[in-house]
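Minutes, project check-in

Agenda point 3 was the complex the collaborators sent over. CS summarized: three entities, 272 residues total, and the question is how they sit relative to each other. Sequences were read into the notes so everyone works from the same version.
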Amino acid sequence: MNVIYCDNDVILEDVACLNLDLTLDCGQAFRWEKQEDGSWSGVAEGVFLNIAKKDNKIILKNTTRENFEKIWLNYFDFEKNYSEICRRLKQDKLIAPTVDEYYGIRIVNQNSWEALCSFVISQQNNIKRIKGIIDRLCKAYGDEIGNGFYSFPSAEKLSTLSVDDFEKLGTGYRAKYLEKLAKDVASGVIDLEKIKMLSLEEARKELLNIYGVGIKVANCALLFGFGFYDAFPVDVWMKRVMEYYPNGLPECFNGIGGIAQQYLFHWARNNL
DNA sequence: GTCCAGGCATGCA
DNA sequence: TGCATGCATGGA
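CS then shared the predicted structure for the full assembly.
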């Protein structure tokens, strides 16, 4: 990858394996909006970004070098060698054609608080409605940061809400989970930064102690918000996929099971 | 009207 | 430990 700082834009050349449409609309992050020109706009860590791919170059519009290095380099994991990862995954003949068909899906590294909240909301829910709830949550309680976009509200902010406030956003029976989660994170009873430092098994155990977090939500949060690439979420779609792996997951998935999972999840939603 | 969605808590055996 | 049930909402 080659980084060029040009006027107010950051331009990346030779980024292997990044399809923005697949990556930003594959059910891992819920706050990216496709623009009429085909680019994507969204927010992470309270910072707005418009990103596009043109002529095999990735263009981050109106982005400072500081924000690129502080946020987006890690968010899109530009330095991770996805070509090598995909080559490894394709040692499994079952997933190989899927990796080719949907080549360019990456796991983005989301803020752990945002990911945990988002996937508590996601349970027993569909992606379209999850996006709507999170959008209303951000517009009601986040900070406006321009262009009609809002930051994801902090735990401190959400800790002031009642169960009824969460219900008014359309969260349904998940409102009571969110109310307690926000208060416990804000008060320090739940320490997300500490959980990041644990092993996968220990971190998962901590998340499973949280009211409203089961094995599926825990694994999604671990994969999408805590940097555990070996977490392997199994939802109703992945349960269908697992019938193709009656003897368990192949060895070549070790350490990158979560990435394999995202390709299989996408395949399942389009084919099953 | 019924079924379903990136499931979980609870009660009961 | 494993299984059945209730749960909010909105689109298909």
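Noted in discussion: The radius of gyration of chain A is 18 Å.
Follow-up: revisit at the next meeting once the mutant set is ready.
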